[in-house]
Design goal:
The structure holds two protein chains of two kinds.
Chain A lengths: L15 H9 L14 E8 L9 E10 L2 E11 L9 H6 L3 H6 L3 H12 L3 E4 L2 H16 L7 E3 H13 L14 H7 L10 H18 L8 H7 L8
Parallel strand pairs in A: 1-4, 4-5
Antiparallel strand pairs in A: 1-2, 2-3
Chain B lengths: L12 H7 L10 H8 L3 E5 L4 E3 L8 E7 L2 E6 L5 E7 L4 E2 L1 H6 L6 E4 L3 E7 H10 L2 H8 L11 H7 L8 H5 L2 H4 L6 E3 L4 H11 L3 E5 L7 E6 H9 L19 E3 L4 H11 L3 E6 L2 E7 H6 L5 H10 L6 H5 L2 H10 L4 H27 L6 E5 L1 H4 L11 E5 L5 H24 L17 E3 H13 L3 H10 L3 E5 L1 H17 L1 H13 L22 E2 H19 L7 H10 L5 H27 L7 E2 L6 H24 L4
Parallel strand pairs in B: 9-10, 12-13, 16-17
Antiparallel strand pairs in B: 1-8, 2-7, 3-6, 3-8, 4-5, 4-7, 10-11, 13-14, 15-16, 15-18, 19-20
Classes of the chains: A alpha/beta, B alpha+beta.
């Protein structure tokens, strides 16, 4: 039987994966010790950076449990975009249009990804962009929002650097780059190949571990403190 | 790349690649390797974090260092901390405690930001039990007798494995080494009767059978049970042995190789195993029985030297030292201990040689002492040990005695030096040997020598100082050496000016660090781009310790001992002392491994290390050591202000 509600976004019932997802975060507690949370570090590759037009073409993610990277609990999918177009982004990612044509559409991949995330916090580098495109896809394919809170390693890195180098007058070197590659180099992290969603997610996971354990000499104990650490000076205070 | 079907089973390539490059994981087939890799997690430990605490931390994982470095140390009952080793990329942490099921045996602390792969304990134990290469690899690095240090990095990167080593462990069956039939008594035997039986039969353990069947072995008692369960607890001797026996008896099959038995003992902590043949226990073996099989132990070499009745018999024995040292390094001994071991064995050879020579030539006309100088005097020899020796004899009372002494000791020195050359100790190029008449003199002349050196310091005299001032008694009447040392201490403490010269000479050599903290290596000659670890690295420490020892009248000649006394006397602070010791031992270790490798590839050992052959961690440690030299120099500057 044809259900007309399915065609009208604001009348549509959310996908069961999203319903479950929302329940998981109904009463989310920020005060627990950091190691009790599960994190999913993720990275998405896009057809471009236009927030309105562009789409996700691959998702890579890895889980962190007990503040240890679970290298075998990974998620890696290519996604068939609605508009397949051999533009620059696919060249950067070395994904061919043929590979994209063979990949499943977002409707199929996203519920799996939401499932994979479970009750974890989503971690990413410039996570705002990933969350924007994931949110857009969730509205379109699943009829709702993804409820997982997110943590941005870029902000953390910035907080970390500022705490380290603020001078007597409260100034800080503004020329610092917070690109994932540059930070990994600077902190001397083991390296992964860039521009592959899974490898970038792994690289981000290493960066995340590094930052939360180095910040305040391991003094960050709860999620709340982590959020405070990632606040950007000048914008918040 | 095609999308993986199952989300949770994608094998982390980074781990596979890592494991495929380290021993013993590189021996696994690809399927097994992938399976193992799927269980690995990553953790990160910032610099300065204490990873394991000896005696406390229970290990749930084996740690494999992906990047970074750690140091291991152990502290004794008095809280004194001894550094054991540094481990870098590819090294493991925690294998021994996991295999033995104990808490951590060492303190481990990160010295850099360190990423580790964590392999769950059960997976590791499964590999130990199912992969033949695994127990072999890990067990080889442990020894219950010698301090459990594993210079893993040095070993796996720098030391070639030999096919025949420890072969007996793998070829000898336990059935073959059982010495006698087991003694068996019934469970209702009294403790005292059992103890008497053990004493009469001179055995350390007794098997216990059930009352109705003497074939049915149900338990065992050992010396330790008598001590711990009877004496310590004040138990009645008339109680039956049943109350103190351990049950059931751990057994091995008689056809198992000794290695399996040793592994059983180490993993279970049971040191008496019943040897079983056709369902019957035919005897008991202990870890001691297996240890005795090792013929290349320092102790057996020591005994063999003492047994020689002819000087010629000593020639081949000194050649055995490198092989024995190799075993010690393999088992994890530290450079400082090894140097001491080498000098004990060399001293023992010298003692035997000169004793036999005295038999041959008859009693010497006067008391004398064979002095050892330079690195021998400091007990810091490695494999390349030039002879630096001299003779001091009692002052003759008249001309007749003088002539007799000169004649005897000239001949004695000539013969001794020849024998020593045949034993493999090369001649000293500077002719600082007892055979040189200048260095074969009575006490009064020696005192005079030293007085002159101290009174009028010139460069040549300062060179002498470095060799002669580290003398010690090697053989003969040690009191002659002691009185010379006493005299030297008296005159040097009076001659502040001389010490000042010595200190300046000491500070003249710059530490081999450039502003960019790269290595300064020799610019020309045969050893272009190589680091002379003795001259540039170790000598500054030796000189430093010597100057301060002379200033403070310390009799020790060994550099580490001198530093220790200086610390105890509060001349050196806690921190500087610890840094100096750590830096010095680290370099000794590097030099030792370097020379051992040369020796094994048939090259004459030298002190020239190619920095390119060092791992990143070693380079960093070496660089840190060189920085300590600068600290020592500035310490000397405050002690001996210029102008």
């Amino acid at each position: 039987m044809f259900d007309y509600k399915e065609c009208i976004p604001w009348l549509r019932k959310p996908h069961p994966a999203l319903v479950k997802n929302r329940e998981l975060f109904a009463d989310f507690n920020q005060g627990r010790p950091l190691h009790e949370y599960t994190f999913v570090v993720c990275d998405t590759e896009l057809t471009g950076l236009n927030k309105r037009k562009d789409e996700i073409i691959s998702i890579g993610a890895v889980r962190i449990v007990n503040l240890q990277v679970e290298l075998c609990q990974t998620f890696h999918r290519y996604i068939q975009p609605k508009n397949i177009d051999p533009n620059q982004a696919t060249l950067v990612h070395r994904i061919t249009p043929q590979e994209l044509k063979a990949a499943p559409p977002m409707d199929e991949v996203l519920p799996e990804f939401v499932e994979f995330c479970g009750d974890a916090l989503i971690v990413g580098h410039f996570v705002g962009i990933d969350m924007h495109f994931l949110g857009k896809a969730a509205r379109k394919s699943l009829g709702g929002m993804i409820s997982n809170p997110s943590v941005d390693t870029m902000r953390l890195a910035r907080g970390y650097e500022e705490a380290k180098c603020v001078d007597f007058y409260g100034n800080c070197d503004q020329s610092q780059s917070y690109n994932l590659d540059v930070l990994s180099e600077q902190f001397n992290l083991p390296r992964f190949k860039p521009h592959d969603a899974l490898e970038d997610a792994l690289q981000t996971a290493y960066l995340f571990l590094y930052l939360i354990k180095k910040f305040k000499h391991g003094g960050i104990k709860t999620l709340k403190e982590l959020y405070l650490a990632g606040r950007i000076r000048g914008l918040m205070s | 790349m095609v999308v993986a079907g199952d989300v949770h089973s994608e094998t982390p390539e980074v781990v596979v690649e890592f494991l495929a490059n380290i021993m013993p994981f590189n021996e696994l087939d690809s399927e097994k390797l992938h399976e193992v890799a799927r269980h690995v997690k990553v953790d990160f430990f910032p610099k300065g974090v204490k990873l394991l605490t000896a005696g406390e931390t229970e290990l749930s994982h084996l740690y494999l260092i992906q990047q970074g470095g750690v140091k291991s140390s152990i502290s004794d009952d008095e809280g004194e901390v001894t550094l054991k080793d540094y481990r870098g990329e590819g090294a493991y942490i925690g294998a021994l405690p996991i295999i033995r099921g104990t808490a951590a045996n060492l303190d481990i602390e990160t010295v850099e930001d360190t990423f580790c792969f964590l392999l769950p304990r059960e997976i590791f134990l499964d590999l130990i039990n199912t992969q033949p290469g695994f127990p072999q690899y890990y067990l080889k690095s442990f020894s219950e007798k010698i301090v459990t240090t594993a210079y893993t990095e040095l070993r796996s990167h720098k030391m070639t494995r030999r096919g025949d080593e420890d072969l007996y462990l793998f070829s000898m069956q336990v059935g073959d080494i059982v010495k006698q039939d087991p003694c068996v008594v019934s469970v209702d035997t009294s403790i005292q009767q059992a103890a008497k039986l053990m004493a009469d039969a001179r055995i350390g353990s007794l098997l216990i059978h059930s009352p109705e069947n003497s074939e049915d072995i149900i338990g065992i008692i050992t010396d330790r049970d008598l001590r711990n369960k009877v004496l310590a607890q004040g138990r009645d001797y008339a109680e039956p042995v049943e109350n103190i026996m351990s049950s059931p008896v751990g057994t091995v099959l008689s056809q198992s190789v000794c290695f399996d038995a040793l592994l059983r003992m180490m993993s279970t902590g049971i040191h008496h195993l019943g040897v079983e043949r056709k369902g019957k226990i035919i005897g008991i073996i202990t870890s001691h029985d297996i240890m005795l099989l090792q013929g290349n132990s320092p102790y057996s070499l020591f005994k063999e030297i003492g047994k020689q009745q002819e000087i010629r018999g000593l020639y081949p024995l000194s050649q055995k030292i490198p092989e024995m040292i190799r075993n010690l390094i393999k088992e994890g001994a530290k450079a400082g201990n090894i140097a001491r071991m080498i000098s004990i064995l060399n001293d023992h050879i010298l003692e035997r040689l000169l004793t036999l020579l005295e038999y041959e030539m008859g009693q010497p006309p006067l008391d004398y002492c064979w002095l050892l100088m330079g690195s021998e005097g400091r007990r810091e020899q490695t494999f390349k040990t030039d002879q630096d020796n001299a003779i001091i004899y009692a002052d003759p009372k008249n001309d007749q005695e003088r002539e007799a002494a000169e004649e005897y000791f000239t001949e004695f020195a000539r013969k001794a030096i020849d024998h020593l050359v045949n034993c493999g100790y090369p001649l000293c190029p500077g002719e600082i040997m007892a055979v040189n008449p200048k260095w074969c003199q009575p006490v009064s002349v020696w005192k005079n020598h030293f007085e002159q050196w101290v009174a009028a310091p010139d460069p040549q005299e300062l060179l002498h100082a470095t060799i002669f001032f580290d003398f010690r008694a090697g053989f003969g009447k040690a009191s002659l050496a002691t009185s010379l040392r006493q005299h030297l201490n008296e005159i040097t403490q009076r001659q502040e000016l001389y010490l000042l010269h010595l200190a300046r000479e000491c500070m003249a050599g710059r530490a081999p660090l450039s502003f960019f903290k790269n290595f300064i290596v020799e610019k020309d000659g045969e050893h272009v781009n190589k680091l002379d670890i003795k001259r540039q690295g170790l000598t500054p420490f030796v000189n430093f310790a010597r100057v301060l020892a002379l200033k403070h009248g310390i009799r020790e000649t060994n550099t580490l001992s001198r530093l220790h006394v200086l610390f105890k006397e509060k001349v050196l602070g806690d921190e500087l002392w610890a840094m100096a010791v750590e830096a010095y031992e680290m370099q000794m270790q590097l030099r030792l491994i370097h020379q051992l490798n040369q020796l094994e590839s048939g090259i004459m050992p030298d002190n020239h290390i190619d920095p390119a052959s060092l791992s990143d961690l070693e380079k960093r440690m070496l660089r840190d050591s060189f920085e300590v030299i600068e600290r020592l120099h500035s310490f000397l500057k405050t002690m001996f202000p210029v102008g």
